[in-house]
Protein 1
Amino acid sequence: DTAALKRLSGAHHWHPFTDHQELAALGGPRIITHADGVWLTDSTGARILDAMAGLWCVNVGYGRRELADAAYQQLTDLSFYHGFFKTTTEPTVRLAAKLAELTPPGLSRAFFANSGSEANDTIVRMARHYWALKGKPEKRVFIGREHGYHGTTMAATSLNGMKVMHEQGGLPLPGFAHVMAPYPFEAQGQMSAEAFGRLAARAVEEKILAIGPENVAAFIGEPVQGAGGVIIPPDSYWPEINRICREHDILLIADEVICGFGRLGHWFGSQRYGIRPDFMTLAKGITSGYVPLSAVMVGDRVAETLIHEGGEFYHGFTYSGHPVACAVALANLEVIEREGLVDRARTEIGPYLREKLEEVLDGHPIVGEIRAEGMIGAIEIVKDRRTRERFAGGGKVGLMARDHCFNNNLIMRGIRDSLVFAPALSMTKEEADEAARLARLALDLTAKDLGVL
Ligand code: PLP
């Protein structure tokens, strides 16, 4: 029963990214028992509208029978085999070929791992190995961005631009640098978004020149920064990054863990922004979160060198290319294609959700901006809509709004002073209406707490 599970959880389960004192004060975790479409059910029978697709991953929605069937069939036929002994399995090969077909030209090979973090760690090793093979072993530094999120392993945390994560564990590792994010809202209206995008790109070039291009291995960025607060770059940003990386001979990594598989209304964020990456990191939406799987798409330039000049690359995970995960991924991609979910996110449900939020939040005293791209977006919470002045207290109001959402059976996420959303691409218009209505309620309650309403 619920009380017993909460007691066991309190005694034995260490939650990811959780303050356990706060969790205990709440009386323990909410226990989720079922899910269908965008709806979760908890152990008390309450239904919760999940406007975060779990953790930005359940792109096709919960409860898809064909994904479960694909897993069952594969578990029955061949529950496990691997690629270490010059062996492979059919779903692994088919998925690699499918990813090569879907991703932009020039990314022909997939290396599989289990999580976005592992995939990014893999890229760090591959990129350094590549430069060593090219006779430039000193090209070792990775440049990431403030508010960037790339995972929780040692190298991925080092790529992150989050100070709180660096403070725990003595990170970043040597050889990781960071630059500003293309976050025009922070310019407080003092320059146009496009000018801000150019400024943020210039900061990348200045950092490369300060470190010395001969020392820089790669630049990493999420097409739209997700966990850092859904930071949508101005269109001026990525073309400049392409140019800078090309001119200074720096590898470009597009971390598409959130943006991939239709989230931005394109198969990949790189297509939305015209990014020309040497590596692409994929996870989350690759299986819609039904089972763990990630992939590194390796650009031909790097792949040719590593394969033809590198001999054995001493890297791989027991579950690299797990057949069950790959079978589920193939079934998931079939659903996305058959239902046209990528176009739906761009032309139909994405714009609808955004317009609904704009409608219900029109003139709301604490809403400074609503921004969205496809099926991901953010609502910026401010004290003064005109000047965009923030509330005092250093970025805590997003969490207040998140709690009001949660208490009213809507899941959105609080990041600093914003409330962010990334629902399943299969969300219906009625569900978008309901999400907007509940978001309004949560923001009204937040405004009351802050003494504004
Ligand atoms: N990269 C991005 C852009 C992410 O958003 C995440 C997770 O949220 C990761 C990497 C890490 O993925 P994982 O949690 O599967 O290790």
Protein 2
Amino acid sequence: TNEFAFTDDPFDKMPKLRARLLANENPLGISPNAKEALVKAADLGNRYAWMEFAQLKTLLATDEGVKPTNIMMSPGSSDILMAAADHFAKGGGTILTSTMTYDDLLQRAEKFGAKIKALPMTKDYKFDLPAIKANITPDVKMVYIVNPNNPTGTIIPTAELEAFIREVAPKVPVFIDEAYIDFFEPAERPKLGKLVSEGQNVILARTFSKIHGFAGLRLGYAIAQPEMLKTLHAYTNGEFAVSITTLMAGIASYKDVDWQNHCRAENAKARNYTTKALTDMGYEVIPSSANFILFPIRMKTSAFSNQMFANGIGIQTRDFNGQPYCRVSVGTMDEMAMFMDSFKKVVG
Ligand code: PLP
């Protein structure tokens, strides 16, 4: 099984936090345009959201180079992950992935009968695609890849990922969890939609929880072949689980490219500041392309976590191969300064 699990459950300590840096949320909040749309949506709360679904899917499909029928909306991407876990666990078989990745889908699939085969990452904490390719055996039902990866923040070069999908997807479905894709600079963002329009058996999972700041509002979607979406749909509560308020806010946020650029730039600034401050102290920070940073620490995870929380700083800790790590979400510059201040105190 995936050995990279939470070592602490910090959520009961949340109310006392000065800096909530444990869930990769957007510290800047939602777009002002999305707020306005939420208020307008209140007047439409009595209506089913048929037109709004169509409007958002058309926007997304146009940008991704797919058809609206290649898109299924959901209340957050977790629903897509869970549907895939349920479907591919049915009747047993193996889900192939790497160690040290997001394990919600994996844990669920394991609970419902799948075997999880998590291969070691490369030395620089990336998915080892050649190793995954070499392990595609007849019992493998699905490959799960997270790009950018959580918790390492690492990315797979786009050309390598595309070649991998073209080779593997004809044999076994490839699930790419792109929760953090919006943190790529727009010019460098992988455009895997074109592989879907080529007919490849790939499932892309997306969320508004990160750069759009919708973690509480709940909005996500899958991009895949229509037959695959139909299969996954059967394991969900249906698209109407997304409210008209969230949809209208989502449309406004999606169109507010200035807000997304602002959040991406602020994230990069605070991430660079924190990476440099930790590196200056002699810590080896894994280069991150997302809104969190992972680095090995020199204290036991429980002692470190307890002391950071006692200082009002919420972070996450994990043990991996006997090495303790801290994962800190990127907050505002003020929050990262508070984090560094407490970190220095705690590690002495
Ligand atoms: N996938 C990854 C890699 C994540 O880190 C998260 C949340 O942090 C999710 C999926 C689920 O996010 P949500 O259900 O809010 O879209």
